[in-house]
Amino acid sequence: MTKTTIYYGPSTTINLFHSKMDSEKSSFEQGCIRWRWKSKDNSSNIEQDYRWKQHADIENRMIEHAYQQGNDQVELDDFTIDFRSGIQISKRDSQEQYEIKRQIGLSDISNRVRVDRFVVEEAHCIEKSFYSSPRSFMNAILFYEGRAGPERVLKAIAGIREVGALLGKAMQAECLANDFQETYGIYWSREDEIMDQVIRLYTMDSFLYKFINYFMRNADITTGEFENERDKMYGQLLGPYYSLLQESFHRRRSEVDILLYRSANVTDDMIEEYKQYVGKDITWISFSSSSKIKAVALLYDGNTLFQIYVPKHPDTQNADVSSLSHFPEEEEVVFDHQTCFTVKKIDYDQILRKHIIHLDITDYGARFRK
């Protein structure tokens, strides 16, 4: 029987990390296979790599899985890919069609890292007083974390599905939730495996990590509670997964002296703002990804590089997740939300043509979150 379309819905179980896709996974972990689509503004007939955009890695895996299964098409949240015609068709407008291509054996590191993951979303300074804060996001969302053990895991899985559906990413959510559920089914008695899987889901380039951080930055919180019904709803859905994620990060705290890097596009006013904060402490509200490799952060064509010194300290709130990532060459280290930094100095590198903002992580972040 001819295979036609694979649809990633509740009836489809795809495991992104275990035996069903082991051969595919090994290629992906090395960054060997990438699906790309040609951006709309390409008017020239001259084909050059920079004109092609990469699919998000969760979409990349879903596309490759369907391709390996011999299907003619694969339907995802925002588009359908027709392998026979080599095109990607928008669900919003069927006339929106883009050429696609499959690339194998990519060696350039720029093809094997996700540049936007190491970009500061909000670079504004936020002055901190180091007291227990009634406005803390953690205080608000942990109200919904649920009981420990199996109940919290199952609520986290259900929450991923529901948030994905609300955001129009039901198919991505189903893939993530199915994999989490299968991991839990296999390793239900091994807490370390479950916690590692929680981080793996976060390291995927999907709606999940993007929305959690967006929610942290934008939720309205007063006296330790979400102010509006929308935020309460998302807090209830994400609370169980968030609490598992934070616990997982704390288990992987990196207690070594290290320099980390993160990029940004910063306005002149914001540069002046940082200069006013030299010698003072600031905080980044959401989870923040950084890299141990300067070259990875420099792949983003921003005007500013954050160079972050992390001293060895038992209370340091950063987790090395590189061993669990599908992109180990990124050497990703994640800062906990509301991590505090001291602004040491700001200078300008004439060779790189970038502002360099030097930060030192402090142990005050642990005090602030208590």
Instruction: Please state the structural category.
Output: alpha+beta
- The rounded distance between the terminal residues' Cα atoms is 60 Å
Count of alpha/pi helices: 11
- The average pLDDT is 80
- Order of neighbouring strands in the sheet with most strands: 1-4-5-6-7-2-3
The CATH homologous superfamily name of the largest domain equals Toxin ADP-ribosyltransferase, Chain A, domain 1
**Order of helices and strands, N to C?**
EHEEHEEEEHHHHHEEHEHEEHEEEEEH
> Helical proportion?
25-40%
Low-confidence stretches: 9-30, 127-132
Q: Which quaternary structure do these chains form?
A: single chain
At the fold tier of CATH, the topology name of the largest domain is Toxin ADP-ribosyltransferase, Chain A, domain 1
Overall strand count: 17
**How large is the radius of gyration?**
21 Å
> What is the CATH domain class of the largest domain?
Alpha Beta
Global geometry = globular
Q: Any guess at the CATH architecture of the largest domain?
A: Alpha-Beta Complex
Overall structural domain count: 3
Strand content: 15-25%
General description of the model:
This is WWE domain-containing protein. InterPro entries: ADP-ribosyltransferase, WWE_dom, WWE_dom_sf. The chain is an alpha+beta fold. It has a 7-stranded mixed beta sheet with strand order 1-4-5-6-7-2-3, with helices on one face. Strands 10-13-17-16-11 form a 5-stranded mixed beta sheet. The chain is built from 11 helices and 17 strands. Helix 5 packs antiparallel against helix 6 (191-203) and helix 6 packs across helix 8 (229-251). Helices cover 34% and strands 22% of the residues. Mean pLDDT is 80; it is low at 9-30 and 127-132. It has helices at 22-29, 57-68, 137-141, 150-166, 170-186, 191-203, 207-218, 229-251, 268-276, 294-298, 364-369; strands spanning 5-7, 33-38, 52-54, 73-75, 79-82, 87-90, 97-104, 221-222, 225-226, 258-264, 281-284, 288-291, 304-310, 318-320, 332-335, 339-349, 354-361. The chain folds into 3 domains: 5-111, Signal recognition particle alu RNA binding heterodimer, srp9/1; 115-130 and 253-369, Alpha-Beta Complex (Toxin ADP-ribosyltransferase, Chain A, domain 1), CATH 3.90.176; 137-251, no CATH class. It starts with a strand and ends with a helix.
